[in-house]
User: Fold these one by one.
Assistant:
Number 1:
Amino acid sequence: MPLPKISTPLHYLDLPSTGEEVEYRPFIVKEEKLLLLAMESEDTREISTAIKTVIKNCIRKIKTKNGEISGDDLDKKVETLPTFDIEYLFLNIRSRSVGEEVEVSILCPDDEETFVDVKININDINVIKNDKHNRIITIDDKIKMEMRYPTLEQFTKNNFDLASNDTNQSFDLIASCVDKVINEDEVIDHADVTKEEIIDFLEQMNSFQFNQINEFFETMPKLAHKLEVVNPKTKVKSEVTIEGLQSFFA
């Protein structure tokens, strides 16, 4: 006689980037083992691959304005999701799987040496959107550029940091995030040009124009949470903002 199948509950959330509804289940022991092995490796690419694998396994479907996405199309959709969507999805799947609270170690900003352990309810963590953020960048009175958000794969591949000294890595990621260039009535899609052509286009910009691209990345939506900590040594109360998935599992 075969062993019975264990049913799992379904949950729902809206993607921060589009508002599309996601139907998902908690991850199971096999998937948790995959995550733990990846975390133990401390390899960023292995960890990101494991996170995406778990998300693909746990999502049943995504409802869009054009219908439902499932199966192989769902895997393709996950690969193109912005980093903050991936982080938000994983955090909520984790919440439904192993508990709603996570304990993090926070560095007290008043002395920058004392750490305090704080418990955070995952349901209180959200993707924060900046009112100044704009995906359309005006180059001049004729040319505009429409940006798209970097995926988790792009961040991992480029180890992206706009303040980094590795200029080539920064330009590679920026080029991959240029979705369209609008030249008056002509729309040039990223698929119609090479990465080298886009980089050449970027290198023609002046500092003011290029700084608008920096602002796009600096103000794009991010997984973040504000909390208060009290330094046990100095008794000073401080407000701290933690950002990014790694901050909630450090």
Number 2:
Amino acid sequence: MFASGNHCPTSVQLVKATARLYSGSQEMSRRTQLGVFVAVMFSLVVSLHLSLAVAQEVQTEIRARARVLNDIGPGLIAVKRDSSGRYFVAASSANSIAIFSADSKRLGQIPPANLQDVSKDANNTPKISFIADFDLDATGHLVVADRGANTVKVFDADGSLLSTTPIPAPSSVAALPGEEFAVTSLRYHWLMGIYAYADRLIRAVGEPADFAKGLDPARTPDLGRVSSDPAGNLYFAFSFLPVPTVRRFDRFGYAGNEIALDEFSPEQHRRELFPVDAGDHPRPVRQQINALGVDPVTQEIWIAVGDELLRFDKDGARTGLYRTLSPAGAPLSTKLILVEPDRLLLGTEAWGIFDFARPAKASAASPSP
């Protein structure tokens, strides 16, 4: 009710006031809608720019020159090179390590096939049951993760067995200076253990819960893989984090810098202009690091995710991104990386090992794409 007297508004005044209010509300609504539209478009432009930058960087392609070590076919496990240029390769359901010369000629194997007394242990069982991984130390000893025997075994260059260390389900191994090695296990509740050759645990490195809250190691047995360089640095490639990640540790287990490949996280593959119903949206596949290699001289780091090869300096700054192709131009999904002075050897699951010319480093003066 309005009060009586001269202050009572007329019908015309009421209509005009209502019209002004309506017009004002329409203007405010238009401004609000315009603000929302501008914010959304700005977000889309930023996302599109970032996506185009990544896509443009990925377009650098490198093509294999040839397949090498042709005796090695499907089921490649590991390949290493010693100081004399010989190659040591394990493949398929391996219970031995093949040895090749620098020009790919077969030289023999470890344990030697023709010496029964050398190829058997004291219990007359094969010295190697199943190789999950192996590495070479600076003196030429082979450190073998024998998952079939639940041990890590160290062999001399002539194939004689030097030591045996019980390890439950070893999954990867890396040699360290001073006759030590780091090993991962499908049964560990830490990232890796560091052992002396003389069958002694020196230290355990990393609690998984420190890296992923709520992680149950019993439900995530494969925590990752370990590699090393001649300086004794350790590189742990995580398999249980949502973002593919590599962390460097020193030989005493102290953590250093970290490389997180955010562009390969599941969330990066869910960005859409128009979202669909959750029931119609396929669950994104989490990508993982397939292979890691370290330059023994510069400590440059090479990481493979599918057919993409990422290059980093020793401090973890990215210096290159490549797509790997076969000699015929087909995509190659890399399983292992061996970094040599003038080339890269990239191993695959099905097609063996390929030789790539080592890409030149991008010039610091060249403009970014």
